[in-house]
Each structure stands twice: as C-alpha cells, then as structure tokens.
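A quick aside before the break. I want you to see a complete sequence-to-structure record at least once, exactly as it would be stored in a machine-readable document. Don't worry about memorizing anything.
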Amino acid sequence: MARIAVLGTGIVGTAAAWDLTRRGHEVVVADARSEAAAGAARLSGARAVTVDATNDAAVRRLLADCDAVVSAVPYALGVAVAKAAIASGTHYFDFGGNPTIVGKQLLLDDAARRADVAVVPDCGLAPGMADVLAVGVVAELGDGPIDEVRLRVGALPAAPTGALGYQLAFNPAGLINEYAEPCEILSDGRYATVEPLTEIEAVAWEGWGPLEAFHTAGGSSSLPRRWEGRVRDLDYKTLRFPGHCSSFRAMLEIGLFDENLQPGSGVAPRTVLLEALSRHLPAGAPDLVLVRVWAVADRGGKRRTAGYQVEDVHDGRFSALARTTAFPATALAHLVVTGAVSTRGACTMDGALDATAMIDALAGTGIEFTRYPA
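That is the input. The structure line, written in tokens, reads:
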C-alpha cells in the first residue's frame, strides 16, 4: 500500500492515522510535540516523528517520501502545507472549514495538476461528508432547477451539559471561527452571505431533540458558488441544544470575538474567550454527531425530496466527532492513492468523488447512512 503522513495528532489526526493503518497503509504521524506524536503512534500503530508544521523545510522533508498527507493542523497553515505537498509530489487532504483559506488553496489548481497530485481541502464532516451527500441528493433529483438544499449538522454531548448545552469537542479557535465568519448561502438563486448565529430554527430529532439550528460559517463549502443559478435556496446550519446560539450571539455582539488588542487593556478579547472556553467547558463525555441533508425539487408537477441522515456516537475508541471528521478524509485519501479515484488538481471534497463512492468507502468505519425522509 501507500506511505501516508498525518500531520497533527489531536483527536482527529489520531483517528485518521488509526483508520489509514486499518486500511493497510504505512502511516507516519507527525507533531511538534514528540509526546503527542508518540501517543498517537501507540494508539494507531503508526510510526511517530517530531515535525513542526510551521517549519516549511521540515514539512517538505517529511513529505518527500510520502504518497499523501492528511493535514490535521490549524487551518491557518493550510496553504503552506498544501504548497509543500505540491512541491513534494504528494497528495494533500485536510478538514478545511475556513472559506478564505480554502479559496487560496483552490488557486493552487494549476500547480497541483502540473505535479500530478490532488489537493483536496474541506474533507471532514462539514465541510466534507455533508456536502458530498448534498451533491448526491441533488443528482438523484435529476436535471432541472432545485428548489432548496438544506444541510443540518451538529456535534453534541450525548446529554446537554451546562448553560451552553455543550462540551469542548475540538480546538475552541475552530469553533469561534465558525461562529464569527460570514455564512455562504443561496437566496433566490443568488450567492449571498448572512451573519453567523442568526435565523434560529427549531429541529425535532427523535431520541435527541428538541434541538436548534442556526447559521455558521464554512459548512456549505463550494456548494453556493457551484449551484448559483440552479438552486433557489441553500443553507448550512449547525445543530445545538436550545439556548446555545443566543448565548454565543451575545458574546459576538459585545465584542468577545474581536481579535484586535484593545486600547485600554492591551488584550484581544478573543484570546481571553478562547482561554476561558478551554479551561471551563467540560470535555470527554460521550458525544454524538447528527447529520441531515436533503434537497427538494418539483418534478412533473410533484414535489420530490431526497436526503440522507447520519447518527453516530462514540465507539469506545474515538469520539463521534473524531470519527466523522477523520474518516471521510482517510476514505478519500485511500481511494486516491490506490487509484480508485483519479482526481487531480485542487478541489473541495464534493468535487472529488460522488456520494455512492464515499458511502461505500466508509462501509468499514461504522458510520451508517439512512435515507431522509425515511
């Protein structure tokens, strides 16, 4: 099989290394913290090396002997690591989530094609798996205009926790990024953006509800641009327990998301907020991931709906969030390095493979897909 590097050994990177090893690949896990790399290697059966992802030369040395890299480092490093992968002739996959960074990565298309490699950001849960499902259900509805495409995705504690009904499932910087950036949608067939943490809707979900859904950034990936003029209305919303959105919207409105140093204190409010979230939010309890993606269109005078739903829980080894974020990327990496998918150049996951291929590739992971509505 192939030699694949996993750069970054947090909960998602470790799960990625485990799945790639399970698939028979030779895996190298790399982190600036040698103890973190060693821990991930023990759990996944990979080989550990110490590499600082901010050191471009070190990253290139790591990738020189690798067929692919799954990048699980902060999104701010995404462009630099993708360029290093292209220079090394190495396929690149990451979990994306920041539209500005992803836009810069997609500009690497010509360079990636010349190097005969795939550069695929947005390969996680959402963006990633949910967007591939959206493309699949739109394809099911056939040619013609689409009335609406909806994506509803949430990583939640199995039981509401604290006033926010939430536990810290990943780096809080990523969470606040989703809650702070403009949210890309389609409205009346035109590309638009809306403010995050707005337009709360109630969601019924048997066994887990009631829930709320609200706009957050990044989850719609390339879909609004891709379908402008064909899909009338499209949006991506995050699922949480009721009351969560209003609490974080208040933090946004009073400036706690601000990254600028304040004239009085000399402190950036977001820095304080991230420290507080890291210190005080609970973590580590059983979690679940809920995904509901559907499309609606008029066909032959009848309203047709096609959709998918996922309910995933902690499997005793990895959290539901780690599983549903890591395994779509590792499934795609496996398909590319084995030649089952021939994608080259830069594109998001929804442009790299179809829903059927993704679902088939995830069959051994325990992530199960059902149809929605049932």
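Two observations worth writing down. The longest strand covers residues 287-299. The chain is about 35% helix and 25% strand. We'll return to this after the break.
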